[in-house]
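Q: Sequence in, structure out?
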Amino acid sequence: MKEYAYKLEMKTRDYECDVQGVINNANYQHYLEVTRHEFIQSLGQSFEEWHNRGIDVMVSKITINYKASLRGGQEFISCLNLKRTGVRYVFLQDIYRKSDMKHCISAEVHCVCVVDGVLSRGDEIEAPFKPFLIS
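A: Exactly. Output:
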């Protein structure tokens, strides 16, 4: 596994499986979102606090490459790195099955900032992210 700015261990639930017995593809977006939220909270920040200041961070694009399936009851590690591309923050996220460290998905999540209803570069929230930004 490569180096990451943040890692979060989680466990799948049986009800997330589809008829084939694997985790339904849509659930991976939930795992990715939980990881981003937990990362932001670990920095002492929150989406609610930002929203109350007039700053809304929104997903503008997600690309997911599915590599291997998770099944119900399996533990996994959700990881992320972060970079800036123009006005976007791009979360580079991976999920690994914990039992064998199999790389299950790779994702790019592009986010934009809207400040008081106007698209922004997101400089208002950059300070806590700065130590983690990769080039």
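The two ends are 19 Å apart (CA to CA).
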